[in-house]
Amino acid sequence: MEVKEMSLVIECPREYVHYNFLVKRGFSDGEPTMFFAEVKPNCKGEGDVYHCTPLEETDSGHCFACNHGAKDLMHPNAGGYLGGHKEKGSFHMELVLDSDDDVCYL
Predict the structure, then answer these.
(1) CA distance linking residue 89 with residue 68, whole number of Å
(2) pLDDT digits (tens, 9 = 90+) for 37-92
(3) pTM above the 0.90 mark?
(4) 103 in a domain, yes or no?
(5) Neighbouring C-beta atoms of residue 34, cutoff 10 Å
(6) Are 63 and 75 a contacting pair, CB within 8 Å?
(7) Distance from C-alpha of 8 to C-alpha of 19, rounded to nearest angstrom
(8) Within-domain flag for 14
């Protein structure tokens, strides 16, 4: 798994982290699959994952928060994620993944 984009979405009093990550399945030489996930900021495991789905190349779902700063972060057209739907009160905060950071294992 390789994290490509991530964004902290703040909609007081709730917070979410939106991720795009690449997954290469098994040992095949096939193309990796891009995923979207929405998790709790202090994600420790599966119970902290709100939404996780593979993305299609045509996906361009809307997120008010990510559109302010994480414009390359893809969202599924079908929705299903909780954060980023409010035009007012949605904020984005850039997150930087350090190799020493704890990562939510989806």
Answers:
(1) 12
(2) 999 998 999 999 999 999 999 999 999 888 887 889 999 999 999 998 877 655 55
(3) no
(4) no
(5) 18
(6) yes
(7) 9
(8) yes
